[in-house]
Design a protein that fits this description.
Blueprint: E1 27-28, E2 48-55, E3 61-65, E4 75-76, E5 79-80, E6 84-93, E7 100-108
Parallel strand pairs: 1-7
Antiparallel strand pairs: 2-3, 2-6, 4-5, 6-7
């Protein structure tokens, strides 16, 4: 209701999917310009037992997180990592569904 005693309502049907879609960028630019400064998987589902890891070309772990939504800022040991291709993996569980796992590569662009 508003000041004129008019009422309004709206409704929208939503569809809940029974699978987990995950989107992961293939490149990022951690240059603090506010655009693509962090690398992280994107999913709209609630993730339990989340584990996200990024490795350099020698298999060294350069980033790890157990917090969904937390991303890699392109630093390794406190310094800007070298530009190039990095491997990543993500694993998590979604209530009432099979565990989700994915892996791939991302390019750090300077």
């Amino acid at each position: 209701n508003n000041a004129l005693n008019c009422s309004d309502s709206t409704s929208k049907t939503i569809t809940v999917l029974d699978f987990c879609r995950i989107e992961v960028p293939t490149a990022f630019t951690p240059n603090n310009d506010g655009l693509n400064d962090y690398f992280r998987p994107h999913t709209a589902l609630k993730a339990d037992n989340y584990e996200f890891q990024v490795f350099n070309r020698w298999g060294q772990l350069v980033f790890e997180s157990t917090k969904p939504g937390e991303g890699w800022d392109g630093k390794f040991n406190g310094k800007q990592a070298q530009f190039g291709v990095y491997s990543w993996s993500v694993r998590f569980e979604v209530p009432e569904n099979d565990p989700v796992s994915a892996s791939g590569h991302v390019t750090l662009i300077k």
